[in-house]
From TrEMBL:
One of its GO terms (molecular function) is acyltransferase activity, transferring groups other than amino-acyl groups. Keywords: Acyltransferase, Transferase. This is Acetyltransferase. InterPro entries: Acyl_CoA_acyltransferase, Bact_Acetyltransf, GNAT_dom. Residues 1-140 form the N-acetyltransferase domain. The keyword Translocase does not apply. Pfam families: Acetyltransf_7. The keyword Repressor does not apply. It is an enzyme of class 2 (transferase).
Length: 141
C-alpha cells in the first residue's frame, strides 16, 4: 500500500474531518459527549489595562486550564482566585466534573494546592533543571 504523509491545507483543517473521525471512534467507548467548549476570561482595570486572564476548555467533562496569569503588580489581591473560581463555575455549567492543569515548579503549584488541586504526576527536568507538575481537582457540583 502506498501511503503519503503531508501537511493538510488550511481548508482541510477547517473542515474538522479528522476530529470528527476521532470523536466517532471515542463515542464507541464512552458514548456521545459535548464538543470541546472554550472558557476565556480577561481581567482589566478601570483604564482597560489587562491585569490577567485565563484560557481553558472543557472536553470529556474535564476543565483543562491552559493559561492562568496575573500581572505581578496585581498579585496578592485575589484576582487569580477569582479567575480560577469563575472558570470552574463556567466549567461545571458546561458539565465538567473535574479540572486539570500543569505548572512549573517556579510558577503556581502552591496557589493551585490552596484551591484544592493535587499533584498526580511530575516530570523532572522538563525545562533544564526544573520539574513540571500535573495537577487535578474534583469540581463541586
Amino acid at each position: 500500500m502506498h501511503i503519503t504523509i503531508s501537511t493538510p491545507t488550511d481548508e482541510q483543517v477547517r473542515t474538522g474531518a479528522l476530529g470528527r473521525r476521532l470523536r466517532l471512534y471515542n463515542h464507541s467507548f464512552v458514548g456521545e459527549y459535548p464538543e470541546q467548549q472554550y472558557i476565556r476570561l480577561d481581567a482589566r482595570d478601570g483604564n482597560g489595562r489587562l491585569l490577567g486572564g485565563l484560557r481553558g476548555f472543557v472536553f470529556l467533562y474535564w476543565l483543562n486550564v491552559e493559561v492562568l496569569f496575573v500581572e505581578e503588580d496585581a498579585r496578592g489581591a485575589g484576582l487569580g482566585s477569582r479567575l480560577l473560581a469563575e472558570a470552574e463555575r463556567q466549567a461545571v455549567a458546561l458539565g465538567a466534573k473535574n479540572a486539570k492543569l500543569d505548572t512549573f515548579e517556579w510558577q503556581a503549584r502552591e496557589f493551585y494546592a490552596r484551591h484544592g488541586y493535587e499533584v498526580y504526576a511530575r516530570i523532572d527536568d522538563y525545562a533544564p533543571g526544573y520539574w513540571l507538575a500535573y495537577m487535578k481537582k474534583t469540581l463541586a457540583r
